[in-house]
Structure formats: structure tokens, C-alpha cells
Amino acid sequence: MSGVTVRVPAKVNVQLAVGAARPDGFHDLANVFLAVSLYDGVTATPAGELTVTCEGPDADKVPLDRTNLAARAAELLAARHGLSPDVHLHIRKDIPVAGGMAGGSADGAGALLACDRLWGLDSPRAELLEICAELGSDVPFSLVGGAALGTGRGEKLTELPVGGAFHWVFAVADGGLSTPAVYGEFDRLAEGVDVPVPAASPALLEALAAGDTTALAGALANDLQPAALSLRPALAATLTAGTEAGALAALVSGSGPTTAFLVKDAEAAAAVAAALTASGTCRTARAATSPAPGATVL
Description:
Shape: globular
Radius of gyration: 19 Å
Mean pLDDT: 95
Number of strands: 12
Low-confidence stretches: none
Largest sheet: 8 strands, mixed
Number of helices: 10
Strand content: 25-35%
């Protein structure tokens, strides 16, 4: 086989409920993922050794060594089957880098599926999900797509019904935010506070199942948003610009710094994206829809 290309989606957390820090340093989560129509592509081709290349926006910020989740995915899969991970992985980036939209996780899931097909392994879905969980908390959802509730540290997934399409605008900030730094700031802000056990919002799950944009707008929540705003106060101006332009709701996407705006329809998305771009509060703004399929062989 000459090569296998897999397309993988970005995600937005429509609810991210975060519990207190655990002894292992992780946090229990109730993380409602929704895959959106911004995609990376990962192509696996035979090679004499494991190599990674990347093209697209902010490609220079993507590590090309063995710390890249795509490379780690190839290594873990190969090790399970007694193979040498001799593969060239080429990543075509379109998901914002270090933007809170799981771009690195998407590349890990994409590389895993691409290598599985390239090497003719036909691994069961359960095995692929196990490897995804080893790679990182968000990686299993990148494989699954659609909508899902992630519990534990986010890796234990329950797929959720979605009753219709939702329209979004994502404002891409200059520079990234470190997810560990945002969680560290969450812990600092939570000192002395009784942090509740995270649980999914029934109203939010009902809104997703009904495809009700207005109800979903009223239920969006991200417990990491105060921490992200503390580390990057300028994001508040972006959130304000989007809501003033007509977005039904706005929130920081995951650990940020990308901000997400839920809008009524495609026409509203175009208007909000244009207003955000003109506001000078973000680098660019992108319209997308959800739900989107998970990792898909092209």
C-alpha cells in the first residue's frame, strides 16, 4: 500500500465541568465533546524510519520529533504488534495549534488509524480506543467524533445523540495556551474552595438531543474559562466582540485560547466571523458546523 490518509475533526467542549485535583495530578471531568467541521489530515506512507512532517497554518509550532502525538501513536501501535514503526507521517494542519480544540489529539488519532490500515492490522475499535487513552485524555474522542460525554479524565466516552446541526464561529488567538498551565491556574483559583463533583448538565444533554440551538446556548459552560481569562485577559474582549456581533453564546474552547461562538445559522456565522475579524481582538475567525464524524479514512 502506497499510503493512507485519515481526516480528523477539531472539537469544542460544550460543557467542561472540572473536579478538584486528584492525587495523580489529573482532574475528574464531565466533558461534553462536540466534533466540528475543522479538520487535520494525516497521511501514513512506508518509510525506512519514523519521521513526521507538517504543513499548514502554524506548522512551525508543531513538534516533529517523538513528542508529537502522531509519532507516539505509531510507536504504541507498532509495539503492540511487534513491529518497527517505520512510517512517514505527514500532517496537514487546519485545526488551530495549542488552541483548545484538540488539534494534537486529532493528529494522534489520525496517525493511529492511518498506521493501522497501512500495516493491515484491522485492530478492533476497543483496542484503538485503549491506545488513544494512553496517548491523552482527548484522543479517544478524536477517533469517535460526533458527540460524547467524557468522564474520568475525559477518556471514558459515552456517545450522545444529537438532533440537528449547530453552527459555530471560532476566533483564533495569537499564540497558544498550555493546557497544564491552565489547569494549574484552575487549581490556584480553587484554593480554599469546595469544588463540586463534576456532572453533565441534563439541560445541555437535552438541548443536544433535540438539536435546540437556543437551549444549548443557555447551557454552555466551561469551568476552565476563568483560568484561561486569568492567564490571557485579552480573551474577554474577543468574547464581548462576538456576542455584540450577534452570537447566541460565547465561551473559551477547552483550555483556550480559541474562543467559540454559537450562532443561529450559516448567515449569522458569516456575519459574526466578519465582525470578529474586523474587531482586531483575534487573528482570524472560522465558521464551522457540528456534529462532525470522527477519524475517517479517505
